[in-house]
Design a protein that fits this description.
four-stranded mixed beta sheet, Zincin-like, 3 domains, 10 strands
């Protein structure tokens, strides 16, 4: 019988409701958990979800082994490394080009690509935000003028502070098909009616955006 591979993980305590796990290319799992969650509870969760976490680590490792391609809005594009000024990336519509000084530095390559995608998708995300907000208002929802911020978040696709009229959207969505981006915007705007993730929340969310469950599955992969 094969011995189980040990899962190494690093825990970060935050003021959050749920636990979040992120597989890193170095073979470790980043765990974000509330201060009240015990180390034993975290270990128990990891043991119960061992197979899933191993698959996450394998995917992260494969991405690190193949730095010559990247995703943008659901499509795969080649990545080329060339001499250029600055630690950044460029996109010509067909190929992402990254400074060759970063070629062996996986995390720096990902940051350069992410920053490039943020610049490209800003107008796209703004258009989606306007469409979703207008759809909610057109259906009779009370949606206030909202400040929307696009930023990098390790464990969340989006967040909504209904009291402050603020929504945050994760930059990593730039890798996924447009319908997934729409799904997160619909999710966050629905929080103006429901503060929590109740059955009623998801039922109404699916009624206004029928592709939500399909997109949620894609975002979990």
């Amino acid at each position: 019988m094969n011995e189980k591979k040990e899962i190494k993980y690093i825990v970060t305590r935050k003021n959050i409701k749920n636990m979040y796990f992120r597989a890193k290319p170095d073979g470790t799992i980043d765990v974000s958990a509330n201060y009240n969650v015990t180390d034993l509870q975290i270990k128990d969760f990891i043991d119960k979800n061992y197979e899933k976490l191993i698959r996450m680590l394998e995917k992260a490792s494969k991405r690190a082994e193949n730095p010559n391609e990247t995703h943008y809005l659901g499509k795969v594009y080649p990545v080329e490394f060339k001499k250029m000024s600055g630690n950044y990336a460029q996109f010509d519509g067909n190929v992402f080009t990254v400074n060759d000084l970063l070629e062996k530095r996986y995390e720096d390559v990902q940051v350069a690509l992410r920053n490039c995608k943020i610049d490209m998708c800003f107008d796209v995300f703004s258009k989606i935000n306007s469409e979703v907000a207008a759809d909610f208002r057109g259906k009779g929802y009370n949606i206030p003028i909202t400040t929307v911020t696009i930023k990098y978040m390790k464990t969340l696709w989006g967040s909504c502070n209904a009291f402050k009229h603020k929504i945050s959207i994760c930059t990593k969505l730039a890798d996924y098909p447009l319908k997934c981006v729409y799904s997160v915007y619909y999710h966050e705007y629905m929080h103006y009616k429901y503060s929590g993730h109740t059955a009623a929340f998801y039922k109404e969310l699916n009624s206004i955006f029928p592709e939500y469950d399909e997109c949620a599955k894609l975002l979990k992969q």
